[in-house]
Write a sequence for this structure.
């Protein structure tokens, strides 16, 4: 729709895990290296943890695509909410085993071990990658642990990658899954992007799509995209794509902050708290403090008159009582220096 208007060859912010649009920030580059090392060095079990939308699937697809070009066979499962028989069927199809292997676990393990032995002897990579692993039933996590036991005296024959959201790490802390956790040889974490990385993410995708980022979003619009998305790549793409649609409809180039804010309000993303001026904030705080003060107690009968004091003591001037209002607002009379950011 808006590609020609902004000078793109293709849409830059589609929500598909296309490795061509992979942004290698420092965090993503470290995670990519861990995944590559875990598969090539046959380390057993590699764990990739990241919140929803941080780019786990795109990273995994990039690794798989690269190694499949080199003759690797990597079984990729992105919907692991399967029963045991369905999981056996998946492994049978992924590793090109016989139909008998899908019906018998003994046949599956026997045939799979033979395939792994042959490929290992030929110097070929074989692996298993499971995405959205936080959704796996416990019984399948136990099957993964047992698959990780297929090994020689020196190498793991089936390196496995488990990728999932932080709930996966929480589940591995359960006592019933302690044996699986002990087999984790590598662990990597994907975090949200910071402001600079967000700008690089937007500019990089626009560049891959054939556009010029300076002509697409203003700097203020990029700042607003970061604030509203929290640095989550998937949300950044959602905001950018819809902002470009709105900008195209309004004949706006580049897209400004106002359009981005409209889009974020429509999607209910990252609503900001209203800004209160320092003086108003101070008055509001004082009012709240006054409202929190309990009511004064009921008057009590006056005590009997005290005995006559010595003349010297009686002549001393009485101190004027300090009112509550003055003690409460006294600190407001002190001159303060404010910084406006």
């Amino acid at each position: 729709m808006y590609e020609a208007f902004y000078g793109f060859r293709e849409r830059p912010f589609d929500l598909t895990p296309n490795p061509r649009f992979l942004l290698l920030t420092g965090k993503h580059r470290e995670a990519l290296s861990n995944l590559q090392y875990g598969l090539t060095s046959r380390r057993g079990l590699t764990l990739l943890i990241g919140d929803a939308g941080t780019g786990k699937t795109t990273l995994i697809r990039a690794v798989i695509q690269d190694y499949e070009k080199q003759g690797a066979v990597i079984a990729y499962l992105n919907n692991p909410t399967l029963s045991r028989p369905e999981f056996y069927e998946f492994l049978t199809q992924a590793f090109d085993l016989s139909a008998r292997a899908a019906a018998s676990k003994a046949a599956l393990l026997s045939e799979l071990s033979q395939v792994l032995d042959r490929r290992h002897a030929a110097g070929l990579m074989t692996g298993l990658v499971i995405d959205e692993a936080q959704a796996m039933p416990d019984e399948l996590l136990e099957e993964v642990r047992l698959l990780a036991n297929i090994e020689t005296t020196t190498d793991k024959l089936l390196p496995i990658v488990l990728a999932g959201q932080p709930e996966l790490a929480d589940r591995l802390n359960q006592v019933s899954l302690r044996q699986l956790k002990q087999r984790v040889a590598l662990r990597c974490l994907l975090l949200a992007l910071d402001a600079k990385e967000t700008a690089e993410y937007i500019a990089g995708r626009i560049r891959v799509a054939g556009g010029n980022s300076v002509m697409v979003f203003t700097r203020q619009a990029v700042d607003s995209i970061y604030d509203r998305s929290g640095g989550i790549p998937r949300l950044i793409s959602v905001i950018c794509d819809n902002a470009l649609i709105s900008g195209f409809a309004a004949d706006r180039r580049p897209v400004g902050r106002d359009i981005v804010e409209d889009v974020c309000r429509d999607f209910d993303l990252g609503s900001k708290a209203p800004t209160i001026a320092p003086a108003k904030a101070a008055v509001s705080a004082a009012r709240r403090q006054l409202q929190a003060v309990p009511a004064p107690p009921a008057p009590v009968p006056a005590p009997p008159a005290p005995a006559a004091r010595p003349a010297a003591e009686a002549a001393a001037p009485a101190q004027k009582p300090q009112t509550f209002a003055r003690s409460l607002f006294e600190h407001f009379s002190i001159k303060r220096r404010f910084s406006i950011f």
